[in-house]
Amino acid sequence: MTTHTDTVDPTQELAVFLRARRERLDPGALGLPSRRQARRTPGLRREEVAELAGVSVDYVVRLEQGRGLRPSADVLEALARALRLSPVERGYLFDLAQQRLRTADEPATTAPPPLARLVADLSPLPAMLVNHRYDILAWNHEVTRLFLDFATLPPARRNAMWLCLMHPEVREFYADRERVVREGVAHLRAAWATHPEDRALTGLIAEFTARDEEFARRWNEREIKVNGRGHKVLRHPEVGEIAMDFETLIPLEDPEQRLLIYRAADEESQSALARLCAR
């Protein structure tokens, strides 16, 4: 039994957590063969967890006894699968073991329906949903009037950084383009370190480096930054300059995605945005 203390002992909490998650599982639901001998404790036996995870029984015993082991990321992944941990529980397991949580092998390329509906419901605020590499997954009418209609682009070009660097119209959109590019490159470098397995992201970075001298120079500076909020001034071809503030939110259920919400920074910009969206 654990008692409340002012500090957490990660090793002991890891031991208790693994035992608790093992004991809650139904062997029959996992397709494990029935045993002639009656089970003395609920859930799976340590032997069964060891077999499912591909580790030794002694290793599971020592983990559950809190004997100072620090399992590797591979072992934690195997234990998470064996114990049928939810994404939140998996993150908790990695935190307790002081290991870096691995990201999904296949980054999201489509918006979850609840988030797509949320983007639409945020009207009249311009909003869009992007993944870690700036792929645009969902958007509402207002944001298309502010920037451009993403539906007219091939899916492979619905990427905010590609538009900023390569699109002939969007390239000239930002009053402070140098800062926008610098911050975008710093975000992509952080995303690249977190998602080393993402070949699509690696391909984008290679394309940008080869085709855009400014990107290549900024990339070699190795600046790291992820903006949660900020300010942009847009040179809109229809209504002139619009000053916009933006906020970036991360959904708990989809932490690899980013919800970008824009708001006019002043009354003049609000009036220009209203005229733009009414057309």
From TrEMBL:
<dbReference type="InterPro" id="IPR001387">
    <property type="entry name" value="Cro/C1-type_HTH"/>
</dbReference>
<feature type="domain" description="HTH cro/C1-type">
    <location>
        <begin position="36"/>
        <end position="90"/>
    </location>
</feature>
<dbReference type="Pfam" id="PF13560">
    <property type="entry name" value="HTH_31"/>
</dbReference>
<dbReference type="Pfam" id="PF17765">
    <property type="entry name" value="MLTR_LBD"/>
</dbReference>
<protein>
    <submittedName>
        <fullName>XRE family transcriptional regulator</fullName>
    </submittedName>
</protein>
<dbReference type="InterPro" id="IPR010982">
    <property type="entry name" value="Lambda_DNA-bd_dom_sf"/>
</dbReference>
<dbReference type="InterPro" id="IPR041413">
    <property type="entry name" value="MLTR_LBD"/>
</dbReference>
